[in-house]
Write a structure and sequence with these properties.
The complex is a heterodimer of chains A (281) and B (279).
Chain A: H1 6-33, H2 43-50, H3 54-84, H4 90-98, H5 105-116, H6 121-128, H7 144-172, H8 176-184, H9 189-200, H10 202-217, H11 221-226, H12 234-243, H13 248-272
Helix pairs in contact in A: 1-13, 2-13, 3-7, 3-10, 5-7, 7-10, 10-13, 12-13
Chain B: H1 11-43, H2 47-50, H3 64-71, H4 75-106, H5 112-123, H6 131-141, H7 147-171, H8 175-183, H9 188-217, H10 220-225, H11 232-238, H12 245-277
Classes of the chains: A mainly alpha (281), B mainly alpha (279).
Pfam family, one (chain A): BPD_transp_1
Keywords (chain A): Cell membrane, Membrane, Transmembrane, Transmembrane helix, Transport
Protein name (chain A): Sugar ABC transporter permease
C-alpha cells in the first residue's frame, strides 16, 4: 500500500467510530432536546429550568466546582513543586499521590461515607476524644454544610491526582537552566515559582483546568454515595429525568445545558490562560 | 544540579524548612492513604462490627463482609460484567486507536489537523451524557442492555486517550530504525512487527490498562445503558439507598483494588503518557 493512502486507512477506524458514537449521538441528543414529538420547540428547556429544584441544582453544582477546583489546583501545584526537588523516594511518593487517579468517583464516595456515616470513623474519633458521647448523624438535611463539606473533601481527595500528573509532566519540561540562572541572580524560591514555573507551566495549567472543570460539572456518583437526594446536582437530575421520571426529552435538555456550561468554561479558561504565539518551551 | 543551594540562611532556618517539607510530604501521603485504610478496616470486619459504634481502628480480619458481598444476589454477575466490559474496551480502544496514533506520528497528510481537532473535541465534552441518546439507538439495533453495547460507549471514552498516548509512544521511536529495517529487506508491515512493536509493547500495555481503568470506573453510562446486565459500579449505584453498609464498603473495596494494582503497573508511563498526550 502506498504512503499516500496508508495514513487515511489507519485513521479510518477511529474516525468512523467517533462519527458513529460521538458525533451522531450528539446530533441525536440535540434533536431530542429540541423536540417533543412535533417540530422544533424549547418546551423541554422550559420544563427543566422552571422546575423548582433547578436553581438549587445549578447553584450546588457551581458552588461545588468553585470550592473544589481552586483547592485542587493549589494542592496539585504544591505537590508538584515538592516532588520536583525530591531526590530520595520520588517514585514511591508519586505512586502514593497518584493512587486516587485510578479510583472511581463511586468508590471515592463510598470511602468518604465510611468516614462520615453515623457509625463512621469521624464519629468514632470524636467519641474517642470525648467530643460526642453517642454517634451523631452527620449527613442529614439538618447539616447541609456538612454534606457539602463531605462531598467537597471526597472530590478533592479523588481528583487532585489528575492535575498533579499533568503538572508534574509539565514541570519536567521546563529547562533546569532557567532555575539555575534565576538562582545566580539571587531569586528566592517563591520568586522562582511565580516568575519561572507558573508562566512556563501555562499550557499544562490550561489542560489541567479544562479537564478538571469539565469533570467538576459532571459530578455524579460521589454525590449519589454521600448526599443522595440531599444535594441535587445537574448530572444527578439528568439521571433522575431519564429513569425516575422517564422523560428523555427533559434529560436531553439537561444534557445540553451541562454541555453548554462545560464548553463555556473551556473557552473562558483557554482565553484566560492563552499561550502567547511562539512562546512555547 | 540545583540540589546544592547556596543560601545564606542560617542552618537553623534550613533545618526548620526541611522539617516542614518532610512533615508536609508525610501529611499528604496520609491524606491519600488513611481514607483507603478506613475502607480496608470496614471490608475486613464482620458485618456486625461494620454497623457497630465506635469503630475499631484496625481490621479484625473477618471475611464476613466479603462473603456477604459474594453471596449477594447478582453481585458476582455484576463483577463478571464489569470485567467483560473493561476487557472489551481495552481491546477495542487499542486495536482501533493505535493505528491512528501511528498515522499521526509517521505521516503528514491532508486533514491531519482536522483529525486531531476531532480527537481533542471529545475532551471538551461530558461524554457519559452521550449514553442518553445511545440508549435509544441501542434499542433499535438490539444492543440495549448488552455488555458489548456498553463497551462501545466506554471505548468512545477511552479512544481519544488511546490515540494520543500511542501517538506519543510512536513518536518516541526514531523513524530511522524503521528505515534501516526497510533497507535490510523488511516490508512496512514486517518492519513494524519486528522492530517497532517489540519496542512499543510495554507502552501499549500501559495504555491498554489505562483504558481498562476508565471503563472499570465509569458509573453514569453504565447505569443508563444496562438494566439486567449491570456492571459492578451500576449495581452498587442502583442499590445505594437500600443496601446495608457492609455491602457498600465491600463493593467499594472491590472497586478500589484493581485501581491500586493498575496505577502501580503503569506508574512508569503515567507521566510520559499524560505529559505529551495533553499538549
Amino acid at each position: 500500500m502506498n504512503a499516500r493512502v496508508l495514513p487515511y486507512v489507519l485513521i479510518l477506524p477511529v474516525t468512523l467510530f467517533l462519527c458513529l458514537f460521538f458525533l451522531y449521538p450528539f446530533l441525536l441528543v440535540s434533536k431530542q432536546a429540541f423536540s417533543t414529538g412535533s417540530g422544533f420547540t424549547l418546551d423541554n428547556f422550559r420544563e427543566v429550568t422552571s422546575y423548582w429544584k433547578f436553581p438549587t441544582t445549578l447553584r450546588n453544582t457551581f458552588l461545588l466546582a468553585a470550592a473544589v477546583v481552586p483547592v485542587q489546583l493549589a494542592l496539585a501545584l504544591l505537590m508538584a513543586t515538592m516532588v520536583n526537588k525530591m531526590q530520595k523516594g520520588r517514585d514511591l511518593i508519586l505512586y502514593v499521590w497518584t493512587i486516587p487517579l485510578g479510583i472511581s468517583d463511586l468508590a471515592a464516595g463510598i470511602i468518604w461515607l465510611a468516614i462520615f456515616e453515623q457509625s463512621g470513623f469521624l464519629n468514632s474519633m470524636m467519641n474517642g476524644l470525648g467530643i460526642v458521647d453517642k454517634p451523631v448523624n452527620l449527613l442529614t438535611f439538618q447539616n447541609p454544610g456538612l454534606v457539602f463539606l463531605a462531598i467537597a473533601l471526597a472530590e478533592i481527595w479523588r481528583a487532585t491526582a489528575i492535575m498533579l500528573v499533568i503538572l508534574v509532566a509539565g514541570i519536567g519540561l521546563i529547562p533546569k537552566e532557567y532555575y539555575e540562572a534565576a538562582e545566580v541572580f539571587g531569586a528566592s524560591p517563591w520568586k522562582r515559582f511565580t516568575r519561572i514555573t507558573l508562566p512556563l507551566l501555562r499550557p499544562s495549567l490550561q489542560t489541567a483546568l479544562v479537564l478538571r472543570v469539565i469533570l467538576a460539572f459532571e459530578i455524579f456518583a460521589v454525590v449519589a454515595a454521600l448526599g443522595g437526594t440531599l444535594f441535587p446536582v445537574l448530572m444527578g437530575e439528568t439521571y433522575a429525568y431519564q429513569f425516575d421520571l422517564l422523560n428523555s426529552g427533559a434529560a436531553a435538555a439537561m444534557a445540553l445545558i451541562i454541555l453548554a456550561i462545560s464548553i463555556g468554561f473551556t473557552l473562558i479558561i483557554l482565553r484566560l490562560l492563552r499561550v502567547p504565539k511562539g512562546a512555547t518551551i | 544540579m540545583t540540589s546544592v543551594t547556596t543560601d545564606v540562611a542560617a542552618p537553623d532556618a534550613r533545618k526548620a524548612g526541611k522539617f516542614v517539607y518532610v512533615t508536609a510530604v508525610v501529611l499528604l501521603c496520609a491524606w491519600v492513604l488513611v481514607p483507603i485504610y478506613f475502607l480496608l478496616i470496614n471490608t475486613l470486619s464482620s458485618p456486625d462490627t461494620v454497623n457497630s459504634f465506635p469503630k475499631p481502628f484496625w481490621p479484625e480480619f473477618d471475611l464476613g463482609s466479603l462473603t456477604f458481598f459474594a453471596g449477594f444476589a447478582g453481585m458476582l454477575t455484576a463483577l463478571k460484567n464489569s470485567i467483560l466490559v473493561a476487557g472489551m474496551t481495552m481491546i477495542m480502544s487499542i486495536v482501533i486507536g493505535a493505528p491512528a496514533g501511528y498515522a499521526l506520528s509517521r505521516f503528514d497528510f491532508r486533514g491531519k489537523e482536522l483529525f486531531r481537532l476531532l480527537i481533542l473535541l471529545t475532551r471538551a465534552f461530558p461524554l457519559p451524557l452521550l449514553a442518553l441518546p445511545l440508549a435509544v439507538m441501542f434499542i433499535q439495533t438490539g444492543l440495549d442492555d448488552t455488555v458489548f453495547g456498553l463497551a462501545l460507549v466506554h471505548t468512545t471514552l477511552a479512544i481519544p486517550f488511546a490515540v494520543l498516548i500511542t501517538f506519543s509512544l510512536f513518536s518516541g521511536i526514531p523513524i530511522e530504525l524503521e528505515e534501516a529495517a526497510w533497507t535490510l529487506g523488511c516490508t512496512r508491515l514486517t518492519a513494524f512487527t519486528k522492530v517497532v512493536l517489540p519496542l512499543i509493547l510495554p507502552g501499549i500495555t500501559a495504555s491498554a490498562i489505562f483504558a481498562f481503568v476508565i471503563s472499570w470506573n465509569e458509573v453514569f453510562a453504565a447505569a443508563v445503558l444496562t438494566i439486567e446486565n449491570r456492571t459492578l459500579t451500576a449495581f452498587l449505584l442502583q442499590n445505594l439507598d437500600t443496601s446495608p453498609l457492609h455491602l457498600k464498603f465491600a463493593g467499594g473495596f472491590i472497586l478500589v483494588v484493581p485501581a491500586l494494582i493498575f496505577i502501580f503497573a503503569v506508574r512508569k508511563y503515567l507521566f510520559a503518557m499524560w505529559g505529551i498526550a495533553n499538549r
